[in-house]
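Researcher: Good morning. I'm working through a list of sequences from a screen, and I'd like to move beyond sequence-only analysis. For each chain I'm collecting a predicted structure so we can compare shapes side by side. This is the next one on the list. No need for commentary yet; just the structure.
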Amino acid sequence: MAAVVPPKLPIRDALDIVGRIEAGSIGRVSFEHQRRLFLTRTLEGVPHFGSLPLPGRMTNLAADGALLRSTLLTAALSACSLCLASWSIDTDRSTEHTHGLFEIREEARHFISHENAKGYQQWYVLEPNLKTLVPRCAVPLETQWTPKSLGRSKLSVMVICTVAVPNGVMRRWDVDVPVERKPN
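Model: Good morning. Structure tokens for this chain:
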């Protein structure tokens, strides 16, 4: 059985008919024109190539596409939020190629515990910048107060790697870990 192809309706006529249909009782449209318009917009669920989406109006296919896009976006964002919610510095450990923020923060905490033992001022360690990604260190990490000459506005501890595992990016690195005074 051959498919019946509806007669094409020029876009100019389609715009006129759509305007009159949406105008309600202002204009009269014959049933034949309504049927032709419907058939040019959809042919058993498949859009007719002669029908173009009109500015400011959505065809059925465009509305379905918008719904699909919003559904996919919502699903993707919820999946990303679940992944990000499960990630923390405590789970960011060192791997074969990268040095984890957990180990960097622990090295800063060790340094601060020695400084607090001296008894001058009491400090606690905040989290390093979560966007930091550095190669694994081949030697033990070193720590020191970040020099004021580097222009940091707040006091921080510098965790230093003097020799990184061979890679194409860095031979050495340092990460500043901010600290704050403990309230009295």
